[in-house]
Known about the structure:
This protein has helices at about 1-20, 30-70, 75-105. By secondary structure, the protein is an all-alpha fold.
Amino acid sequence: MRKMLSLALGLLAVLATAGVAFAAEGGTVLDSAAVGTAYLAAAIGMAIAAAGCGIGQGLGLKAACEGTARNPEAGGKLMVTLILGLAFVESLAIYSLVVNMIVLFVNPLAG
């Protein structure tokens, strides 16, 4: 229940601030409030992505350490799988960084 409430409130916050970011008239330069909102949205988005990836990497490392402690002979196979999994999780943070750079440096309203 708590997860759903926090997810709903987060979604509401994103939807509430997105309109301000794109509220400028067509063909004009974004005003400072909209630019500030875009910066805030990018910062919050990157923080959420980094936190999620950090939690995912921590849980993966925990599981690999527990697996190695239970079966030390399988440590090599677990290490390869762990490194591959961590690379996949880290790629999600890189995708989020790319999207945030697009939000910050591309003006969708400039004609």
